[in-house]
Amino acid sequence: MTTAATRHPAADAAVNALAGHGGHLMPSAQLSALAGVGATDWARFAAHWDELTLDTYMADGGTYRYRRYGQFELDPAAGALTLLPHAPYRQESDINPLNGGIERVFDPLTKSFTGDPLLRSVIVELGRIFTDVDGTASWNVKLHPYRISASADQQGRPAPEGRHRDGVTFITSLLIGRSNVTGGESAVYTDAGEHLITATLSEPGDLLLGDDRRTLHSVTPVHPVDPERAAHRDVLVIAYTAR
To answer: pLDDT tens for residues 217-235?
Structure first.
């Protein structure tokens, strides 16, 4: 664990907020400084979202979500990140009443995605923040890159289950890009329903973090600005579970 005196200011603000009410918004400039990346890195990283595949498990019948899935083991102190064998993804119905209760088999993350230096830097730095919050020494890290598309005929629903938690320790939503969409407002709440944060992630690298044990989160639907053009919202959801 690091101390406030040795932490990057962006990490220190996140640790204090998560240890306090449980939610934090980290603007792109802060995350970029923390992870040591810049605009060209975000542009390169965004290209991976063109390789996502249709999510065929949507119980609402929607064809608006594209994704892949994979998981790592992380030792934040050593900065050691190990890709785990590909496996089905499962949430129970009490956590995800829309799509839970079954094993969902998604296409694996591509090698270029898992080997991207931006991804590895972000995962490690966030893991160090979460370790400084609660002392966990080893994390299971699940990655969910999503593209939510929208059209004149179908709105895109980033969180079709409504206000929810994911059944993990810490949850993050990282904006990769928005193209021709309006909406997609994120919010974080306490268990009692107290509103903590509302933000529309707009810049590549804007990041919302939450203690999933103590907060709930939601995202409003997205709609095309120009219905004649392709429209989508790209995010990376990273879930950290204490091992």
So the answer is: 999 999 999 999 999 999 9
